[in-house]
Amino acid sequence: MKILINNIREIFNDKAVSYGVSNNIFSAASSLLTLPLIIIFLTPQLQGYFYIFKSLLAIQSLFLLGIGLVIQNFVSHEWAKINSPDSDNDYHISRIAGIRRFALNWYIFIALITLFVLGVGGTLFIYYSESEYYIRLITWLPAWIVLCIVTAFNTVLALPFVFLKGTNQVFSVKQIELFKKIISRLAQWIVLALGGSLWLLPVGAFMGFITTLSLLLKKHKSFFKELFSYKSKGKIIWEKEIWPLQWRFATSWIAGYAKHSISIPILFAAHGPVIAGQLGMTWTMFITLQSIAGVIVVTQMPSWAIAGANNELSLLKGMFKKSLFQSLLIFCTGALIISLLVAAFSAGDNIIANRILSLLPTIVLAIGFLFENIKHTMVNLIWSQKKEPFWKLNIAEGFLAFVVFPYMGVKFGIMGLLVSFLAFSIISTLIVYIIFRSFFNITLKSY
């Protein structure tokens, strides 16, 4: 118990981590409050539409191709060289300014692509998947179109956070994200309570956009004004400096989308919105838990990048082991709580039991996410060093997921999907561990 208390204290001694954990704790707590509101104010069919909306929105990650993390690490490595002995500060700042122009154009382009694909492709998918669970277009289409438009704006607004994280202003980022999440969630609850049904997502996204934009202008206007005032003296060669790492990161994004975002659309199309809604609600619990555990890792990535750039390898290893232990501690505790709650609700005949998965598929899902949490911690450390040795694994995993998940989901239903997810998670984690050990024993020694 003393070890547990000491580690929790250490977690919250870091302000950035503290805000990050608070951010995700609020997400978890608000998700628990949102769950009964969805059950009360949405029918089982509308619950399925709610989660299909959220799953389809994840497709934007395919178009971003991992560019955010690439830019963040690029900026971190340039930032680490500022004020170092014999450093040309203007040169390194101008290099950061140079990536700014490229990144802004990229994010605007992706926002437009996302708007078109989601607006047209998403609409057609939902419409032709409805089958006997038909709900009138007027019920979901206007809310979906508005959500697509707001999502496009939010895509562009994600870029300032990339630069703030890259310059190690993680504390401020987590502050803004927390306030954004609070306002967005409150807006969703109000819409649900007023009978707004599926409009809770576009209204919540819009209020989050307004909150984020306001706080960025208030807290960091001078930072971005100065950034935009610099001219690029150190030319950024995209095909040599960005793309070689970006396309490797992109394979991870594709594999992640295949494993985490196609299950609900598969069930929606093959078995209807009710079972899709059950998976969506349970999956959201574990995604939220993973984000809580993962904040320990994400907030440390700029520090990992700086330690690696300065060749402080002992420090880097120590920070990694500490972060992994703390992350697993949080995840396992949360997974146990979720499983106990599911067991309690599943034991009786109640309305909640019909809205979430039963205990066995929940346990399978929990074990799968446990392995995913371990894998992501190792992957993020290597990513922070501007390396991506996983691209072959990601291509294979993504391709197989796009083939296996639809087959297993259509033929065997929910258990077919979840057993496939668990098998993919275990195998890919073991492979990543082998690569990770090789990276530490070989790559870092030659740093």
Describe the structure.
The protein is mainly α. It has one domain (2-446). Helix content is 84%, strand content 0%. The protein has 17 helices and no strands. It has helices at 2-13, 15-41, 44-57, 60-64, 67-81, 89-129, 137-157, 159-166, 170-193, 200-229, 238-260, 263-271, 273-298, 301-309, 313-346, 359-384, 391-443. The radius of gyration is 22 Å and the shape is globular. Mean pLDDT is 80; it is low at 1-12.
Could you say how many structural domains there are in total? 1
The best one-word shape is globular
Structural class: mainly alpha
Strand content: under 5%
Query: How many E strands?
Result: 0
Biggest sheet record? none
Average per-residue pLDDT, rounded, comes to 80
User: Helical residue percent?
Assistant: over 70%
Low-confidence stretches: 1-12
The N- and C-terminal alpha carbons lie at a distance of 39 Å
Key structural traits:
mainly alpha, single chain, 447 residues, 17 helices
Quick structural gist:
The chain is mainly alpha-helical and 447 residues long. Helix content is 84%, strand content 0%.
Secondary-structure blueprint of this entry?
Elements: H1 2-13, H2 15-41, H3 44-57, H4 60-64, H5 67-81, H6 89-129, H7 137-157, H8 159-166, H9 170-193, H10 200-229, H11 238-260, H12 263-271, H13 273-298, H14 301-309, H15 313-346, H16 359-384, H17 391-443
